[in-house]
Amino acid sequence: MNYASEIAKLKQGKLASVYLFLGTESYLTDSAKQTLIDAVLKPDEMDLNFGNYDMEEVLVGVALDDAESVPFFGDKRLVIIDRPTFLTAEKTKQKLEHDLVWLENYLKNPPEFTVLAFFAPYEKLDERKKITKLVKKVATTIDVKALSEKETRSFLKETIDNEGFQISPEAFELFIQLTDAKLSLAMGELPKLFLYAGDSQTITKQAVNDLVPKSLEQNIFALVEYVLKKRVSDALSLYQDLLLQKEDPIKINAILMTQFRLLVQVKILEKKGYQQGDIASALKVHPYRVKLAIQQARKFEEKVLKDAFHGLIETEYRLKTGKGDKEMQFELFVLQFSALK
């Protein structure tokens, strides 16, 4: 089901007896859960008519017992079932014996006074299971799956517009890059940018750069660029900044190796005619990471990328065998690589 249209129905008070929220996008999930709560219950009804049960910790029978109870001092009861692993093929540490027959009987005749909602943070369910087929047949399914980069961009632009703010194309691109095109992360950063923009209602590139923190991986991305372009001073300066942030040289080198391996793989696969989506599927890497890797790899010859990757392998060996000062091994690699023709 379309997320926006179903959320609109909830806000209008058009309620179903059973819902299935399926997907891994935490921002959409949290937003949908709050909207559902607000649609079903008044604030003073929460204590008596709301239940939230984690199926990795509690038996489904406990939730069903609650769902079959008549509401106290209200018209509706809301029961949320989180992480219903019995709808998947996943194995859990806690081996709970859920009474699925009871659940089947409930779903065949759900009481009018209860809204039962399954929040399934999974990419897919086990469609072979009888209980899964029944849930999907009875429930109103709302997708809360991770958005594509295009969908994330559209969602963020619409959110910024709806709040009455503007953002320059350059600032928006930097914002997408610093949040890895992840909706939950980006939505968490927007309030700071809105507050900083103030009456001007304009989000600038400088504001994004100053306010949105850079992750270690993003600093590594910049470090890779400095290394490949043989900007020795910039590479060593950024490396020292990372050390001052208490990052471990072995960890830095490991992430660098991962990034250079990706660049080499992308270079080879693109040469073979693979498109961005095919590469992401083949390597099981987030499409946005692949997009950035393609852009970066195209600037350099395959031999240059392989030379850097092999140099980092040697650096890792020295780091792990204790040969020389640990913090100087990367600096040595940068100097040696920059000297290559």
Automatic annotation (TrEMBL):
Transferase keyword on record: yes
Highest taxon of the lineage: Bacteria
Annotated EC: 2.7.7.7
DNA polymerase III delta N-terminal domain boundaries: 19-144
Catalytic activity: DNA(n) + a 2'-deoxyribonucleoside 5'-triphosphate = DNA(n+1) + diphosphate
InterPro entries, sorted: DNA_pol3_clamp-load_cplx_C, DNA_pol3_delta-like_C, DNA_pol3_delta_N, DNA_polIII_delta, P-loop_NTPase
Gene Ontology biological process terms from the UniProt entry: DNA-templated DNA replication
Keyword Heme: no
Gene Ontology CC: DNA polymerase III complex
Pfam families linked: DNA_pol3_delta, DNA_pol3_delta_C
Keywords (A to Z) from UniProt: DNA replication, DNA-directed DNA polymerase, Nucleotidyltransferase, Transferase
Domain DNA polymerase III delta subunit-like C-terminal: 217-337
Family: Belongs to the DNA polymerase HolA subunit family.
Name of protein: DNA polymerase III subunit delta
Organism listed in the record: Carnobacterium divergens DSM 20623
